[in-house]
Amino acid sequence: METDSVRPSGAGTSQRSPVIEARKLDLTFQTNDGAVQALRDVNLTINKGDFVSFIGPSGCGKTTFLRVVAALEHPTGGQITVNGMSPDEARRKRAYGYVFQAAGLYPWRTIAKNIKLPLEIMGYSRAQQDEQVARVLKLVDLEGFGAKYPWQLSGGMQQRASIARALAFDAEILLMDEPFGALDEIVRDHLNEQLLALWDRTGKTIGFVTHSIPEAVYLSTKIVVMSPRPGRITDVIESTLPRERPLDIRDTPEFLAIAHRVREGLRAGHAYDD
Amino acid sequence: MKTAFPVLVVLAAIVALWYAAVAPMNIRTALDQAERAGAAVEPAGARERLEVSVWRLMIDNPDHVSEGYALDRPRLPTPVQVGEELWKTTGEMVLKGRAMSKRSLIYHASITLQSTLWGFLLGTTLGILGAVAIVHSRVMDMSVMPWAIISQTIPIVALAPMIIVLSAQLGIEGRGVPKAIISAYLCYFPVLVGMVKGLRAPTASQLDLLRTYNASQRETFFKLRLPASLPYLFTSLKIGIASALVGTIVGELPTGAISGLGARILIGDQFGTPLAIWAALLAAAILAGVLVTLLDILQRVTLKRMGMPT
Amino acid sequence: MTLLIFSVVIWCAVWAMNRQIANSPDRDDRAARIFVPVVLGGATLFLWEGLVTGLGVSPVILPAPSDIAATFAASTAILWEDFVQTVLKGALTGYVIGCTAAFVIAVLIDRSSFLTRGLLPIGNFVAALPIVGIAPILVSWFGFDWQSKAAVVVVMVFFPMLVNTVQGLRETDAMQRDLMRTYAAGYLQTLVKLRLPAAMPFVFNGLKIASTLALIGAIVAEYFGSPTRGMGFRISTGVGSLSIDLVWAEIAVAAIVGTLLYGGVSWIEKVVTFWHPSQRR
């Protein structure tokens, strides 16, 4: 299914070594109403340094795929490797940071203590913990908020803190499940810009689930269009946009062309029966 | 049915533990009795045996362990003994046509039930009226609510004998009234708290909608607040009836009552018949279970009719 | 008679004043929230005084608050002895043992969802039962002194505490547990860092319920036999010998202790669960 397009230029770090590889992946949930095919015959390669968006209507399996990568769900057929290992081995090696739709910060911990949570679990020393917290707070622009409690922060700031938490242990892969879905448009734009900058600086591989076409096109080097019943990939679009992307790139014809192709892909896969 | 199996297994485990505990609990009494009956017991003499642990006694007198399961006045009766005693004082009395005799637990349970229901009625009425007043009046909310909370931190049992003396001095006939008052005292609070929560359950937008209709406070109450509060009310009614029963029994315990389940416990204590205490306790547990289950059914039926999730 | 009329007038005046405060913009002030109920309580005590003296109620039926206060001041030695016996020895020992045991057992059974499903309904049922009824049995098992009172308290506080802790430990949502999984956190790490803190509001709910039950248990158990001291002993003998003012003094002690105990637990709750929406301001 992979389409050949021009790779974004300027990415000096983009060695084309695969980080996540899925072959003929199937996942069937047993529910009270019978079996539901959440994923069928999913083939996908994500390379190091890619920013991959998964887009599609609800029930298309985009979140499920991300959870399979994170070993939070287990496929019922096919193969998937993360860094050449099984997802569960990768999880144990703490290969990825995961950002959920809700910030999910612990209300009884300050922002700094929240970011330290994975570090405590992974056995970092006190000094390392403090160092990492300072580093990632700067990365997400939350310097000076370390001592605040989550409920004292706005929704956007909370989500930034949760991204910082996922970055704290410096995993190579960042998995994000609609992280900005609950935020308003203006905050979202701002965070998208920041996320791109962060990706550029760190060279991480990012898997990003979203509902929003502009968001997917703006952020990604690769857009995976999915459709439901059964959940499957209908199109994979390699972005032709440059790596450097100011917000107003969204008004260029190139951007609109990609957005159009995504929309076509969504329409083709969607029967509008609900 | 998902929970039925685990519950049964846990119950079976509790009964098994109970049976296992009977042997060490009763070995001393069993040995005393055997010794009086002329059997050789190691060591001889009740006083000497107090120096020895129950486990040692059980090992040294293996033949007498089983006697601990069939004592007339056991420290810890077996579940079967309690069941038999309960049957003797309920089912058998019914078969003999003496269900309401003074020796029947059905009679005593009915006395307790009466006070409980009166207390429940009184407590629920107070609780609901209090909640309505608190929701509609700020001054009630600010002045009364803190005292309602404090009233529950005061151990009612300290007041129970006083309430009974007071009502006797005031010339109130019968022991039912003071018991019902104590019962209402324990019962009103959960109802009050649950009802305040329930009456405040409607969201701002639901209240605003009625404001756009220019609905009166009365209409808002009957069309929105009251129906919205029902799930909360039923939940607290279930707690309330259980508390009312506790209150009645507490009211019967320290006051020299002669009828009622609490009185049976008291009398069983005074006459040294532990089986009577255990049977009365079991009867109280069954009564509590029945009352709560009845309210639960009422809740399901009512809420289903109103189209609310149960 | 003038005292009666005066007290009624004062009470009505206080109510009118509270009404003013409750409808003023400052009503959410901390000071107002404390002042309003306290002043009403004081006025009610004064009304009680006025009613009893004004109507000449026999002190055997209802003594005036001033008489109770006088008796209280005159019998501090007795009251202290009873307080030590009933509250410090009986209620607190039982409270600590019962709550600790319930907490530990809740954490242990929580590892098995089978046990949890089996025990929770039973625990819920037992927590609603009139457990005070076992007082005579435990008194006959453990003797007349405070040990039997503590045992009654242990049994009474155990189930509410157990049920609340187990429920609290189940409070975490799927996302928070998934997060811990992505960190490859072990059972203990998840317990200490996520589930115990999240359970704290429930644990404290259990501790608060248990605090009122503890006093009830310790006092009731004394009605079934005790050495010649203790609040329950004093109340039951006081009622018999018609030394009603001493009984009321004991009731006052019980009320103060109950409120302080509950208030103390609530205060610790506030400190520990400062983050919970119900505690934030």
From TrEMBL, chain A:
It holds the Pfam family ABC_tran. Residues 22-253 form the ABC transporter domain. It comes from the Bacteria. GO terms for molecular function: ATP binding; ATP hydrolysis activity. SMART domains: AAA. PANTHER family: ALIPHATIC SULFONATES IMPORT ATP-BINDING PROTEIN SSUB (PTHR42788:SF13), TAURINE IMPORT ATP-BINDING PROTEIN-RELATED (PTHR42788). Belongs to the ABC transporter superfamily. This is NitT/TauT family transport system ATP-binding protein.
Automatic annotation (TrEMBL), chain B:
It is a multi-pass membrane protein. It is found in: Cell membrane. Residues 105-299 form the ABC transmembrane type-1 domain. The chain crosses the membrane at residues 117-135, 147-168, 180-199, 230-251, 275-298. GO terms for biological process: transmembrane transport. Gene3D superfamilies: MetI-like (1.10.3720.10). One of its GO terms (cellular component) is plasma membrane. Coiled coil: none annotated. InterPro entries: MetI-like (IPR000515), MetI-like_sf (IPR035906). Keywords: Cell membrane, Membrane, Transmembrane, Transmembrane helix, Transport. Belongs to the binding-protein-dependent transport system permease family. This is NitT/TauT family transport system permease protein. It comes from Tropicimonas sediminicola.
From TrEMBL, chain C:
It holds the Pfam family BPD_transp_1. Residues 97-270 form the ABC transmembrane type-1 domain. InterPro entries: MetI-like, MetI-like_sf. GO terms for cellular component: plasma membrane. Keywords: Cell membrane, Membrane, Transmembrane, Transmembrane helix, Transport. Its main location: membrane. GO terms for biological process: transmembrane transport. This is NitT/TauT family transport system permease protein. The keyword Acetylation does not apply. The chain crosses the membrane at residues 32-48, 92-110, 122-144, 150-169, 202-226, 246-268. It is found in: Cell membrane. It is a multi-pass membrane protein.
